[in-house]
Amino acid sequence: MRIQATTEAGGNRTLDVMTAIRGRIAGRALAPGDRLPSIRRFAASMGVSPSTVVEAYDRLAAEGLIRPQRGSGFYVSNAATPPLKLAEAETPKARAVDPFWVSRQSLDADEAVLKPGCGWLPADWMPDEALRRAVRSLARGGGDLLTYYGSTRGSPALRRLLLGRLGEDGIEAGPGHLMLTSTGTQALDLVCRFLLRPGDTVLVDDPCYFNFQALLKAHQARIVGVPYSVHGPDIAAFEAVLAAERPRLYITNSAIHNPTGATLAPQVAHRLLNAAAENDTIIVEDDIFADFEPEPSTRLAALDGLSRVIRIGSFSKTLSASARCGYIAARPDWIEGLVDLQIATNFGGPSPVSSEILAHMLAGGGYRKHMEELRRRLVRARRETADRLHRLGIEPVLLPRGGFNLWCRLPEGMDSTPVAQAAVAEGVVLAPGNVFSVSQGAAGFMRFNVAHMIEPRVYSVLEAAMKRAS
Amino acid sequence: MRIQATTEAGGNRTLDVMTAIRGRIAGRALAPGDRLPSIRRFAASMGVSPSTVVEAYDRLAAEGLIRPQRGSGFYVSNAATPPLKLAEAETPKARAVDPFWVSRQSLDADEAVLKPGCGWLPADWMPDEALRRAVRSLARGGGDLLTYYGSTRGSPALRRLLLGRLGEDGIEAGPGHLMLTSTGTQALDLVCRFLLRPGDTVLVDDPCYFNFQALLKAHQARIVGVPYSVHGPDIAAFEAVLAAERPRLYITNSAIHNPTGATLAPQVAHRLLNAAAENDTIIVEDDIFADFEPEPSTRLAALDGLSRVIRIGSFSKTLSASARCGYIAARPDWIEGLVDLQIATNFGGPSPVSSEILAHMLAGGGYRKHMEELRRRLVRARRETADRLHRLGIEPVLLPRGGFNLWCRLPEGMDSTPVAQAAVAEGVVLAPGNVFSVSQGAAGFMRFNVAHMIEPRVYSVLEAAMKRAS
Fold first, then answer.
1. The domain that contains B28 carries what CATH number?
2. Is residue A462's pLDDT more than 70?
3. Disulfide: which of A108, A113, A321, A453 matches A385 by Cβ 3.0-4.6 Å?
4. Residues B201, B121 share a domain
5. Which residues of chain A are within 8 Å of residue B194 when distances are taken between CB atoms?
6. pTM of the model
7. What pLDDT does residue B8 have?
8. How many other C-beta atoms lie within 10 A of the C-beta of residue A306?
9. Which CDD domains does this entry report, sorted A to Z (chains A, B) (predicted)?
10. Residue B383: which residues within 8 A CB-CB, separation 6 or more?
C-alpha cells in the first residue's frame, strides 16, 4: 500500500480526493461508464500533487468503484451504482424496526408465533369451507381456465361483479374504468410507476399503513405526512401541505383507516377533494377495509366520480390472502396505460385461478352473510380486547365502527419500539407506532389486531415487555 | 385570443418563449412545483418584450402546463409530468405494431382467433388432467393454504424442488440463493428495479423476446442490441458492444433462444462470461424454455455459479399460465434485497394457491413424462410446419433442437409487418419480425408457433396476407 510513504497531511489530501470523487459518483455528476477527470487536471483543480491523485484513483480502483482502462484513463465502474436496497441490516435479527420489520416478522413467522401486530385475520376467521368449494368447482370447470394466461384486464366475471359493486357505491363506471391486478399492493405499485418519477413528492397520512412507506421508498419518492385525526386528515394541515408541497399523489384509505380505524367525515372529504383539485394532486383511495364497515361512509371516488381519484382494492382481508387479486378503478385513459404497464411488467393480468375462485365466492351470495358474521365477531372482539388492554393501562384512541385494528396509546412516557423488540424475543409480533409514522411521532402508540388478541399469552408477554421497556 | 394583434415576427417570438419553457420542463430543468423565471427576467434573457413573455405564459397556463399563483408568479403544474405511457395510440385498432401489439392481440383475442404469433402452447397441449388433480388436492389440503399470504420467499415445497433442479444443472445453491415470485416476468421486473436506474444501458439480443423491450421501456432504460446468430450472440460484436457501451445488464435466454430457437455454444458462453466480467456487466439468464431441450446445453448460471449471473424462470410455458409462479436464483445478498422489494411492491411472495399446484405437479413424477411427450409432439410439429411454410416460400433460419418457435425468413423483399396487419383483419395473429428487433432490422422475418400452425386456415390467411402485402 502506498499510503505508508505519505505524511499525515498527504494522507488527508488523498482522502479528500477520494471523497470528492465519491461525492460526484453518489450525486451522479459522474455516472457509471463516465471517464474520470485526468490526473493532471484534477490535481490542478484540487490544488494537490498529481501523485496524490494517482494514489486516490488507485485506492478507489482497488475498492472497485472505478476501473482503469489502459491508455485511456479511469472510468466509473458499473458496480458504482448500488442496487436498490430498501433495508440496511444484514441479518433478520439485527434489523431496525422499520416499515419492513412487521411484514418480515409476520409473514415468515412460525405457526406458534402470535401475531397481534399483523394486518390480516387468522385462518379460522376466513371462509375456508366456501373457498374449498370454490376450488373444487375450479377443478371441474371447463375450458382453459387452468392453463391460460387470461385477458389483460382480468376475469370478465369478476370485473362484472366489481362494476356492480362500484355502482352500489354510487360510482358510474363501465368496463373501460376497471382492471384487475395480481394483488392490491401491486395495484398501488402500478399506479405509482405510471404517475411518479424519482424525487416526486407523495403525501400520506400520519400514521398510515407501513407498507405504503416501503413501496414509496422503492419508488424513490419524497414522502410527506399529514396528521390524521378521528374524522380524516387534519383538513387545515392538509390544505396547507398541499399548497406548500404540491404533492403529485395523496394515498389514503377511506371507510376504515389503517391503522387508526377512523372514518372520513363528509365535510373533510369535500374540502380534501377541493384542495386536491386546486393543487392538481391525484388521490389514491385504498378500499381494502371497506367491506368491514357496518354501513357505507363517504367515499372519495363516489364524490369525485373517478376523475381525480383512483380507487384500488382487493379481497385479501375478507376472503383470501392466498388466492390474491386486486383491482384499479380509474379514468379510462389511465386504465389503458396501466394495462400496458401490467403487460410489460407481469405479462397478462392476475392469475385466472385466483380471480375465478373469488368470482365464485362473490357470485354465490355467501359473501354478504360471511361479512355480516365477521362484523359481528369483530364488534365483540374489539370491545373485549379494549377491556383487557385497559387493565394494562393501554387505551384506544377511538373505538372504530368496523375492522380489526385498535390504534392505542401506551402509558405515558412508554416507547412502543422497545416493547415490540422485547415481545418478539418471546414469540409475539407487535406493531409499534413508529413503523406507521413518517414523522416518527407515534412512539407512544401501538396497533393491535383484535382477532389475534384472544390468547391470554399475548397479554402476559405484552405486560412483561412493557415492564422490561420501562 | 391575443395573438391577433401581434405581427408575424411577434407571433414567432411568443412561440419561441413557449418552446423554451417547454424544453426546460421536458428536460426537467424545471420540475413540477418549480417557479418559472419572472416575466421581466425572462424577457431580458430572451431579448423579447415583457408582453411577449406574458402572452407565452398565459398560453402555457391555458394548456395546463403551468399555473399562475396570485402575487407569486407562475409555477410548473403537476400535470406537466406526463404519466408513463408505454404506447401511443388511442384505440386498439390504430395501434402501431410495437412490442405490445402481439401481446394485446394474443392475450385478449376471441377463442375463434388463431394465434400462431403467440408465445404459449394451446390448452390441449397442457397437462389439464394433472392440473385438475392438483387443484382437487388443494381443495382437500390442510392448514391455511387457501387463506394465508405465504412466506416472503414462497412455498418451501416448491423451493426445495427447484433447488434440486438447480443442483442437477450443476449449480450449487442453498435456500439463500432462491426466491419465488408471482410470475417469470415479475421476476425479471424485480431484478430490473433492483439494479437499474432510468437511463442505464441494457443489452439484449437482436432479435429478442418482445416483452423484454416493453419491460425495459417501463424502466426507462437505454436499450442496445447485439446480433444473435445460430450459436448465441455474435461474440465479436458482443465483446465490442460491452467495451463501448458498458451495459449494466445483459438479458438473454440460454437453452432455447426466443425467438430464434438457437442454442448457446459452449465457446460463445465462455467468452461471453469473460467479457461480462471484464466490463462488470450483470447477466440475466431467462430459463423459461429450458425444459424443452432434448438434453441440457451449456448454461451461463452453471459456468458462472450465480456470482454474476442471475437465473430467472417459471413454468407458464410447460405447466400452466394460469397458476403462475416465477423464481429468481442469485447471490444471497441480492436475494435479500429482492425479497424486500417484493414485500414493498407486492406484499408477500407468490400466490400459495399457484405455488402449491405447481409443487404438486412437479413432485408427482408426471412432469418428466409430460415433457417427453411434449418434446415428441413438437419435433413432429416443427417438421410439418417447416414443410408447409416451405410451400409458401418461407424458410426457417435454423431448425431448433426444441421448443415451439420457428424463426423464419419471408420471400425476398417482403415486409412482415403489413403481412401481420392484413392477417389480423382476418382473425389470425402473427408475430412480425420487427417487434423482436431493437434495430428494426428483422422486417423480412416472422416467428411462428408450430403448435398453433395445425389449422389449414392459418396457411390460407397467411398466403392471402402475403399476396396483399406484396
1. 1.10.10.10
2. yes
3. A453
4. no
5. 83-84
6. 0.80
7. 36
8. 23
9. AAT_like, WHTH_GntR
10. B399
